[in-house]
Amino acid sequence: MAVKLNLDKLDLQIIQHMMENAEVSYADLGKKLYVSGGTIHVRIKKLEEAGIVKGTRLNADLKMLGYDVIAFIGIYLKESSLYDSVARELQKIPEIVRLNYTTGNYSMFAEIVCKDISQLRYVLHDQLQKIKGIERTETFISLEESFVRNVKVVGS
Fold it and tell me: Which residues does the UniProt record annotate as the domain HTH asnC-type (predicted)?
């Protein structure tokens, strides 16, 4: 259960620095922000308990690991009330790495990562299209990812 937390400037600075480099030690971050490493540790723990910080992730180059296809799928639902059940089924497909409930033409928009077109075809045809509640889909293949960044949470 997420705890309600009033964030102060230090919390936002910690979040910003950790989003830029999650490998920074608490001691080094404390020096940058003029507080102790222990203070950073306590603040991070509070942010985790509040559900604001949700762990750290390794940012791997997927292409170098053999994942050559990134695609986006616009999903039309038969009825918007089916969102929750369809989302649960989509979550079972490991190639889908992100799912959003959207406004506009699609009810849902998913990001999918595959090793090749054959795997993409399998996911689209043999898995996704068989989920009850999906009316149809529209697939967009990414030719290049130009950049990825986090939102800036504190002013300069």
Answer: 7-68
